[in-house]
Design brief:
The structure holds two protein chains of two kinds. By secondary structure, chain A is α/β, with parallel strands linked by helices. Helix content of chain A is 39%, strand content 20%. Chain A contains twelve helices and 14 strands. Chain B folds into two domains: 53 residues; 249 residues, MetI-like (MetI-like fold). Chain B is built from eleven helices and no strands. The chains are: A alpha/beta, B mainly alpha. At the A-B interface, α3, β7 and α8 of A face α5 of B.
Chain lengths: 361, 318
């Protein structure tokens, strides 16, 4: 090695050392918060979590928050194993899988905190040139997706869309090929509202064979955009240029919007049967609602945490981060970045005590 | 600077020593290093097999009602294994003739100046990441294949392969197989090219001297000489196609059914793609089930390789 190389290496090492030292001494943020916080879970929450972590770190320069979007199942598993301090989950903890009990053990002697933090409308998107607006009743929607209706000119669709000229194109229903919370919420809606037509079991795996399948929300949107006559379901914020169907609720047809989606949580009862602590707020979404201006096909994603943590600094940072996520500011940020529906003020008020309860054990 | 000088001296001393009477040390070091490398490979393979077996066991022992989709493990894996083999077979059927033709062109027909550039270009295909092939598949090849697939349905719809109805998005088994074919083309053609260019000169010149045309010469000398290598190249390609994950995951519209219909929207998934699709949201026994399917894939590739070895060794004896 030539002498000049050595000089370069030594210089860069020295610079690196100075840099590290500078980082170490610079945690004089605006707040007293410092430390690292790791979370993992739902991919649906990813965009919102990214926005929250960035802004939260901005406001608390000593704090580092990371969120690993490994999927809801993986997030719950890591939370239970103690690998992460909080998790994002598209489904409430349930006793059936033994996860609720394991989560209680993980939080022992504290309690499990489970709060809704992310509500996002799922849009029914379609690609049918010449048809600007499409209205669908739940029955028709279910029959399209279980492949009973295979042509756009079918009588049932025509009945939902008086005065609209429908082409004789073959319908290509598009579903997710990967397991997902979007699928689970969509089929949950169908099986609750039209159980006579939709007879499949509710899970994150698409139950009907023979449809077009694509990976991820972007895959579904891309497949619908590529195929004339295709129809699929995807996070409303990702619908882009595609046509979005209005869904019949009660006697009117409702378009997915943040307000219409947020309304459903206010109208839904809490599912107290699976709430094992006063700090858990699992919702049994009232999909069958007929109330005006409510959009029932939504995905609700929860944040999971404990009321007690090993150290005061850990408890403090979890508490502050969760508080930020459900605050009006955090919810507005998520709406802007992820197209989610902000939680209503009354709901926020109801779930706030759960976060207040977080403390060092 | 001093350090630099020291290193040089050390190296010089080492060289001097090794050229003297102590060569055996070098030999011993080298042979134990290579033995260690060989053992490591075996240990790795054994370790992977062991991990698969241990982790798959809970799924094998579980009752069907506990498994995903409430079906037995065999019912779960069989369509996936079928799809894996189907996609890989299509890829090999398309890629091998093409690869042999490309290899022959490069080794015997192309003008000398083109040979090097062409060889590089084919090898470059192997350097493209599989996810890029996947994106190319859904954005370019898929949409472009919609028209031809409709034609296949109309003209050859009597064959079970082209029964239709043709997919409107182009995410079909046929397109996935085509993309896989492009992906395995470089490895098959590299192996074939290497051996074709090693065909003994005297055989080729003898054939030409006896009045054979160029094609007859290739048919009589080059192809028989390279046959076993082409087969082993094809098996290498098959191995890659069987395990290919990302491209299939992105492209294929999967539906968990068993069908030979290559152009419809409903296709069987492959083992690797299914693991990639379902792993993120899986927990507990569902993960064991996925690993059990991975074990089956491991077995399929192992059997493929054993069969390839058997074919090649039989050829060599003849």
């Amino acid at each position: 090695m030539s002498p000049s190389r050595w000089i370069a290496i030594v210089t860069s090492l020295a610079l690196l050392a100075v840099g590290v030292a500078a980082c170490g001494s610079s945690d004089s943020g605006s707040s007293g918060l410092s430390g690292q916080l790791a979370g993992a879970g739902s991919t649906a929450q990813e965009a919102a979590q990214e926005a929250w972590t960035a802004e939260f770190e901005n406001e608390n320069s000593g704090a580092t928050v990371s969120y690993d979007a490994v999927g809801s199942g993986g997030g719950r598993e890591q939370f239970i194993a103690g690998g992460v301090a909080f998790a994002g989950s598209d489904a409430a903890l349930e006793e059936e899988e033994g996860e609720l009990k394991k989560a209680q053990e993980r939080c022992d002697p504290g309690e499990v905190v489970e709060i809704p933090a992310y509500v996002s409308p799922i849009a029914v998107v379609y690609n049918l040139p010449g048809v600007e607006s499409l209205q669908l009743s739940p029955e028709t929607l279910a029959m399209i997706f279980n492949q009973e209706i295979d042509s756009w000119s079918d009588k049932a669709i025509a009945a939902d869309n008086p005065g609209v000229e429908l082409p004789d194109t073959r319908i290509t229903p598009v579903n997710r090929s990967d397991e997902s919370g979007t699928t689970e919420n969509f089929v949950d809606y169908l099986s609750k509202v039209v159980p006579s037509v939709w007879t499949y079991e509710v899970s994150g795996d698409w139950p009907v064979k023979g449809g077009e399948a694509a990976q991820g929300t972007s895959g579904v949107v891309e497949a619908v955009a590529a195929g004339e006559g295709a129809i699929g379901y995807a996070d409303a914020s990702q619908a882009g240029e595609l046509g979005v169907a209005k869904i019949k609720v009660g006697s009117e047809y409702v378009e997915p919007s943040a307000e219409a989606a947020a309304k459903i949580l206010d109208e839904s009862p809490e599912d107290k049967s699976i709430a094992k602590s006063p700090y858990m707020f699992p919702f049994e979404l009232d999909r069958k609602t007929e109330s005006q201006g409510t959009y029932p096909i939504v995905l609700t994603s929860y944040l999971l945490a404990c009321t007690q943590y090993g150290s005061a600094s850990e408890a403090e940072i979890v508490k502050a981060y969760l508080e930020y996520a459900i605050s009006a500011e955090g919810q507005a940020l998520a709406a802007e970045n992820a197209g989610s529906a902000p939680l209503s003020a009354s709901l926020t008020e109801k779930i706030e005590p759960a976060i207040e309860a977080i403390e060092a054990g | 600077m001093e350090l630099h000088a020291d290193t040089t001296t050390n190296a010089g001393q080492l060289l001097a020593a090794s050229s003297g009477g102590e060569r055996r040390v070098g030999d011993r070091v080298f042979s134990s290093l290579s033995v260690a490398a060989a053992v490591t490979i075996l240990a790795l393979l054994g370790g992977v097999a062991f991990f698969l077996l241990i982790e798959a066991l809970p799924a094998v022992e579980a009752s069907p009602s506990q498994l995903p989709g409430d079906q037995s493990l065999i019912d779960y894996i069989a369509p996936l294994a079928f799809g894996t083999v189907l996609a890989a077979t299509i890829a090999v059927l398309i890629a091998v003739p093409l690869a042999v033709a490309v290899a022959l062109f490069i080794s015997h027909i192309a003008p000398r100046r083109l040979v090097l550039a062409l060889g590089y270009m084919v090898d470059l295909l192997a350097a493209v990441p599989s996810i890029v092939y996947g994106l190319w598949g859904i954005f370019v090849l898929g949409p472009a294949a919609v028209g031809p697939m409709e034609w296949l349905e109309a003209k050859l719809g009597f064959l079970p392969f082209f029964e239709g109805p043709a997919s409107v998005t182009g995410r079909t088994m046929l397109v996935a197989g085509l993309v896989l074919a492009v992906m395995i083309l470089p490895i098959v053609s590299a192996v074939a090219r290497e051996v074709f260019s090693q065909t003994p000169r005297r055989l080729q010149e003898g054939a030409l001297a006896l009045g054979a045309t160029r094609w007859e010469m290739i048919k009589m000398t080059v192809l028989p000489f390279g046959r076993s290598s082409v087969i082993s190249g094809a098996m290498l390609g098959l191995g890659r196609a069987l395990g290919e994950t990302m491209a299939v995951t992105i492209i294929l519209s999967v539906s968990g059914i068993v069908t030979f219909n290559l152009i419809s929207q409903a296709n069987p998934s492959t083992i690797a793609a299914n693991i990639a699709l379902d792993f993120p949201e899986s927990s507990g026994l569902a993960i064991n089930t996925l690993i059990a399917s991975g074990l089956v894939l491991f077995a399929i590739t192992l059997v493929t390789n054993l069969v390839a070895r058997a074919i090649i060794s039989r050829q060599n004896v003849q």
